[in-house]
Amino acid sequence: MRVDVTTQSGAGRKVRPSELRSAAEKMLRALSLPKAELSILLCTDPEIHALNRDFRHKDKPTDVLAFALREGEAGHLAGDHLGDVVISVDTAARQAAERKHPLKTEAITLLAHGLLHLLGWDHNTDEEELRMNAETARLVSCAQRGDRKRPSKGRAA
Predict the structure, then answer these.
(1) Are 3 and 35 contacting, i.e. CB atoms less than 8 angstroms apart?
(2) How crowded is residue 65: how many other Cβ atoms within 10 Å of its Cβ?
(3) Are 81 and 69 contacting, i.e. CB atoms less than 8 angstroms apart?
(4) Digit-coded pLDDT (tens) for 86-110
(5) What integer pLDDT is reported at residue 157 of this predicted model?
(6) pLDDT tens digits for range 128-141
């Protein structure tokens, strides 16, 4: 398993890259993906705003973006490379304050959400959202308390 965490504009001062790497490794084990490779970028609102505008045509910052390598025509060439999860530490900090929990918890939650998107999960319907939220909570729990293995369901129905 390989997890790379990169920071931009000092975003790594608020969230420790080593803690996020450890959380990601626990999540990947919980998903039975021991050979997976994942990249995580911690950035600021202006940086994620540009990505959101350029790739999703939404001219505003967001909390997390997922760029899956296993999607599209060449998806079969990705192998164990899942893709990239981009987290805005600025937005995560605001959300953590609103939800009255630590920034680390919010960052781990966003990581779990982004990771599930890389694996094909989505939340276009109420049912999908409930299932994805439950799996996100399970992964966060695994990351914070240790490993509770359960096979990945893949795409949410």
Answers:
(1) no
(2) 20
(3) yes
(4) 999 999 999 999 999 999 999 999 9
(5) 36
(6) 999 999 999 999 99
pLDDT tier at 147, thresholds 50, 70, 90: very low
Strand partners, 68: 83
- Grouping H, G, I as helix, E, B as strand and the rest as coil, residue 14 is coil
Q: Which tokens belong to 62?
A: 């967001």
State mean pLDDT over 24-50. Answer: 96
Three-point CA angle 121, 96, 109, nearest 5°: 25
pTM over 0.70: yes
Contact present, 68 and 118 (Cβ < 8 Å) = yes
| Helices assigned H by DSSP within 5-157 | 17-30, 45-56, 89-99, 103-118, 126-145
Nearest to 143 by CA among 108, 99, 113, 118: 108
Cβ neighbours of 144 (radius 10 Å): 12
Record the tokens describing residue 65, joined without a space: 């973006």
Bridge partners, residue 7, by sequence:
42
Question: CA angle at residue 8 from 62 to 16, to 5 degrees?
Answer: 90
